[in-house]
Amino acid sequence: MVGRFFAETRAQLDGLGLPDGEGELTESALRFADGGQFRIEVPTINSATTAETLLVESGRRGFTINRVTETLGLFRHTAAEIRRYAALGREYGAQILMSVGPRANYDIGASVQTPEGSRIGYRLRGQEQVVRAVEDVKRAIDLGITGFVVYDEGLLWVLNELRTRGDLPDIHLKVSAHCGHGNAASARVLQLLGANSFNPVRDLTLPMVAAIRRAVSIPLDCHVDNPKDSGGFIRTYDAPEFVRIAAPVYLKTGNSALEKHGTTPSPAQIEAILRQIEVVTEFLDRHYPTAKQSPVGQLAGVR
C-alpha cells in the first residue's frame, strides 16, 4: 500500500518507471520461457560429489532440482572437478552456476576482516583483481561452465560488455545476495548492467519483493531458508507467495542445513538439505498446486 506522504517524490519515482512504494501482493504475469513460474535452486554445493548426490537423490525421491550453485569459488577447484560439475549439469538437465573466485574475503586487504567489513561484502579490491576475476570466468568457460555468480557490480558490467562484444559466449550472470541490494531501484541498475538473475538480500518482506518484481523483468532468486551466519531464516510458508508475486523466481532452499556460507556439506547436512527441499515442494503442492515448475533441461529466460 502506498503511503499517504511524500506525494511529489512518489510521482517522480513513478515517472522513472519505478514503484512509488512497496508493492501490492498481486500475481506476477511474467514466466520463464518454458512457461514455468518457479525453479528450485540449491546453493552452497561446493563439491561435485555433493552435486551428484543431490541430483541423483532428488530424482529418486520424486522432486526436481533446476539449479545447483557452487559458492566456494572457481579458483578453489581443479580443472577436473569443474569439468565434472559441467558434465553433471548436462546429464541431469540442471543449470550449474559457479562463483567467481577472487573476492574480498580471499584477498590480502584487511578491511573485510573488520567489523565494517560487511559493507564491502565480497567485492573486488583493486583493478588487478578484476583482471583475475575475468580470467577465472574464462578458465571456467573453457572447462564447460556457462553460468556464474558475480559479487561485484563493476565485474558484472565488464562481463556483460565482453559478452555483448562477442569476447565471451552467451553466459548467465547472477548477482549474489552478498552485494547487499534490496530495493527496486538497485534491481533496475543491476538489470541495466547485464544481470540475468538477481538475488536480493534475504530478509525482505513480501511487499518489498513485490516492488522489485514491478521494476525488473529478470528472474529473482529468493531465499526460502538460510544458514545461521546470514540470519537462519526459515520462510517455508512464504514459498508459495514468492512464486505467486515474484515469478519467474528461483526458490533457494537447503541452506538452513549449514552453519555458514562457503562450506562443503557433510553427509548429514546433505540429507538435511534434501529434506528441506522436499518440504518446500510439499508446501507448494499443498498451498499452490497450480504453480508450474520448470522441467529439468529448460534453462532459458523469461517471456
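the 2nd protein, sequnce then structure:
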Amino acid sequence: MVPAVLVDKLQKNYGSVPAVKEISFKVQPGEIFGLLGPNGAGKTTTIRCICTLAKPDGGNLEVCGISVLDNPKGVRRQIGYVAQEVALDKILTGRELLELQANLYHIPSTQGKQRITELIELLGLVKYAEQKTGTYSGGLRRRLDLAAGLLHQPQVLILDEPSVGLDIESRQVVWDFLRQLQAQGTTILISSHYLEEIDALCDRLIIIDQGKVIAQGTPNELKEQIGGDRLTLRLKEFATVEEAEQATQALKTLPFIQEIITNQAQGNSLNLVVTPEPNSLTQIEKTLAEANFSIFSMTQSRPSLDDVYLAATGKTLMDAELAARGTRDLKSEQKQQMK
C-alpha cells in the first residue's frame, strides 16, 4: 500500500540553526496521524515542507506517491491545509469567502455551491454563513477555515494546531467532524501540543523534541512501553538536586519501583514508575522516613503521553513549552534592545 504521506530523513535548517533533524514517518491511507511536541519542536516546519511551503535541505517527501520536490503542483491537488493562524477577509461573509476559495480551486459553479452548502451544514455554520467573518468568534473562524481547506475534497487533510484558542464546545465540534472525515476515507495529519487532542483522535503518532523523533507508535503502545502506575512525589516545594538523588537511592531498594525520573523543572520532584501492590504508598513513606525525608506532596495516575515525553527527555511537555516560551521572549527582548 502506498503511504498517504511519506517523510524519510527530512532535514530543514534556518541559517545555521537546524529546525528538523532527519525526521522519518509514514501515514497510511485513512489514518489520523499526530505530530506531538512543544512549540519550537519542529512540527510546523515539517508540515510546511510536506505542504510545499518550505524547501527541505535533505530527505525525501511524498504525498499519495507523488514527490513533493519533483511535483509540488501534483501534491497540492491531493492536500487540504489548515494553518495554525486563521487568515480570513473580515469584510466577506462566510459564504462569500468559501465561494472565493472555490473559484481559486477552479471548482465548477454548481458543484462549488453544492459543496459549500454541505460543509456549512456539517460544520454548524448555517446561522453564521451570511454574517461577515470579522464578527466570528475564534471557534467559528476555525470551522470556516477548515471548510475552506476541504472544498476541493482532498485525499489528505493537514492541520497545524487545530485546537489552539478554541473553547471546549468548538474543540469538540472540530474533533467530531474530523472523525466523520476519517470514516469517509480522508487521511488526516495533525500537529499539536495538546496531549488530550492527540490521545483522543490519533491512530498513531510521533513525539518530536528539538527537531528529532523521540518516540512513535499508537497512544496505547507508547503508554504501555513505560508500564506501571505513575507517582509524582515532592520532598519539599523546592528540593535540591542532592536531596532528590539521596531519596532516589533510598527508594531504589523497593522492588515494586521500576524507574525514578527527577524532574528538575518542577522543584526536583521524583516521578516514579511503580508496579501496583498493597501498601506500596506506606512502604514508600517508611523508606523515605528512614532516610530522613518526609513527603511534601504525592499524586498517583495511570501512564499518559506526557509520561512518555518525560521518560524520553526528563521534562514534561508543559515544562518544554514554558522553556521555549522563555527563549522566545528573551530573543524578542534582545531584538528590541538592539533597535
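Residues 256 and 275 are 5 Å apart (CA to CA). The radius of gyration is 23 Å.
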